[in-house]
């Protein structure tokens, strides 16, 4: 059982990272915000969950132990596999997932790629007594520019109106937020242009 991975970040992608541990490069699937917070060449610690299938071994990485707990818990709902569980964390913070389930907010869950209205209701029904109440705090890696900032939703909506998929839009917004790194937020048109530049990169 792999609880976490600690080592030098070798490389990152929009939703993946390679961390060198003891001379071995471990490939992990991660949420876009987590990937954006990792810096190649620097050391990082990622909570990890190994998913074993008959034909594959897939390692998932998380910015915090709380994200890992939520990732594993949401998979106890029927129809939710690791791909959808990671998509949930790519779209909603752990406490946002808890709040949506606790309050029966199916609309929030349908923002997740792969989750429709019926699936959202099933998730709420099956997880209501498992996830618990929001715990507060983020922990783990310093994830840049939290999703509660209004500009994030506005830019993501703008990208989707231009034909980009929700997941691609979220990844671009996360990359722009990482570049800001606490600096003053520019006007929405400038942010949208920056996000489009991210999407146009090979």
UniProtKB/TrEMBL annotation:
Q: Which cell locations does it reside in?
A: Cytoplasm
Q: Which InterPro entries match?
A: DNA_helicase_Holl-junc_RuvA_I, Hlx-hairpin-Hlx_DNA-bd_motif, NA-bd_OB-fold, RuvA, RuvA_2-like, RuvA_C, RuvA_C_sf
GO molecular function, one example?
A: four-way junction DNA binding
Any GO BP annotation: DNA repair
Query: Where is it mainly found?
Result: cytoplasm
Q: Name one GO cellular component term.
A: Holliday junction helicase complex
Region described as Domain III: 151-202
Keyword annotations for this protein, in alphabetical order, are: ATP-binding, Cytoplasm, DNA damage, DNA recombination, DNA repair, DNA-binding, Helicase, Hydrolase, Nucleotide-binding
A Pfam family it matches: RuvA_C
Stretch forming the signal peptide: none
Q: Which residues form the Helix-hairpin-helix DNA-binding motif class domain?
A: 72-91, 107-126
What is the documented function of this protein?
Answer: The RuvA-RuvB-RuvC complex processes Holliday junction (HJ) DNA during genetic recombination and DNA repair, while the RuvA-RuvB complex plays an important role in the rescue of blocked DNA replication forks via replication fork reversal (RFR). RuvA specifically binds to HJ cruciform DNA, conferring on it an open structure. The RuvB hexamer acts as an ATP-dependent pump, pulling dsDNA into and through the RuvAB complex. HJ branch migration allows RuvC to scan DNA until it finds its consensus sequence, where it cleaves and resolves the cruciform DNA.
Subunit comment for this entry? Homotetramer. Forms an RuvA(8)-RuvB(12)-Holliday junction (HJ) complex. HJ DNA is sandwiched between 2 RuvA tetramers; dsDNA enters through RuvA and exits via RuvB. An RuvB hexamer assembles on each DNA strand where it exits the tetramer. Each RuvB hexamer is contacted by two RuvA subunits (via domain III) on 2 adjacent RuvB subunits; this complex drives branch migration. In the full resolvosome a probable DNA-RuvA(4)-RuvB(12)-RuvC(2) complex forms which resolves the HJ.
HAMAP family found in the cross-reference section: DNA_HJ_migration_RuvA
Record remark on domains: Has three domains with a flexible linker between the domains II and III and assumes an 'L' shape. Domain III is highly mobile and contacts RuvB.
Q: Indicate the family of this protein.
A: Belongs to the RuvA family.
**What is the designated name of this protein?**
Holliday junction branch migration complex subunit RuvA
What lineage does UniProt assign to this protein's organism? Bacteria, Bacillati, Actinomycetota, Actinomycetes, Streptosporangiales
